[in-house]
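Q: For a teaching handout, I want to show students what a protein-ligand complex looks like in token form. Below are the inputs, and the small molecule is zinc ion. Please produce the holo structure.
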Amino acid sequence: MGNSTSKKDNVIHADIADGNEPIPIKVINNYNEKQPFPFQYGTEYRLSEKVKSLTYQPTESDGCNCVAECTSELCRCESSSTATFDTINRRMQTFIDSYTCGDHQYIECGQHCGCMAKCKRRLTRDTIMKNIEVRYKPDVGFTVIACQHIAAGMPIMNYIGNVVIQEELEKNLNAIWGTDYTFNFHNEGNHKFHCDAAEYGNISRFMSHSCDPNAYILKAFPSTPFDKSKIVIPKLVVIALRSIIPGNEITITYGASYFRDRDIPCLCYTFVCAIPPGIFNIATPHC
Ligand SMILES: [Zn+2]
Ligand SMILES: [Zn+2]
Ligand SMILES: [Zn+2]
Ligand SMILES: [Zn+2]
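A: Here is the structure, written as tokens, with zinc ion included.
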């Protein structure tokens, strides 16, 4: 069956994606009665009107002129990318880690390209790309678990949410959820763009932090316009940093400021943990 659910698991949602993904995404909680906060499931970014007005949608003059495949240096999208995707094995070829991922950009082909986005360079999908589930873990909460082997470099899913600018976020900030599902992913032209998955998003919103994460988020831009003053919003792709085996939690780094700003310790318990709890004996409430 290819997933890690055992007969004893207490499945609290048969499909939290409500049929929006190619396979149902289970939520399991074997510890207590807790449920994930309700949210609206979606598989695509939702741009605020403000973000739409500030950003540029690439046209044919921005894309590559390739006819069918985009594999050579002649492809403008390929040659302007700072990271290479192995289109045969479907893995990032360039080694990127969670601390350098912000320095890279992948230029992804789109409908505006000569290949009409049908080439194999396409990294992102509008659906989850791997078999995963959500499980409750004591101390951590609901977290994303792999149900299949995922090789290092393979894309797993897009990070989805409402895309807003800083000013909108400050206005809408939900007191209950705070900024736990929100991150600033792009700054351009005096604007700070945030992806806010508190009320709308996909499974990526459940990804937990680790100071030694096994995944990172890569920016996938549409072909960059010649006019650099135009703002283009990248898609955010969660990519395996190491090989992930079934049962592994899929983790990213939230950055140390997440914990410092909240004055809370990190509970990742890895050797390299930047902000560990003072005493490693926090009682775990098993029920
Ligand atoms: Zn091309
Ligand atoms: Zn292209
Ligand atoms: Zn292409
Ligand atoms: Zn840590």
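A: Two things your students might notice: The CA atoms of residues 172 and 256 lie 25 Å apart. The helical segments are 49-54, 76-79, 166-172, 256-262.
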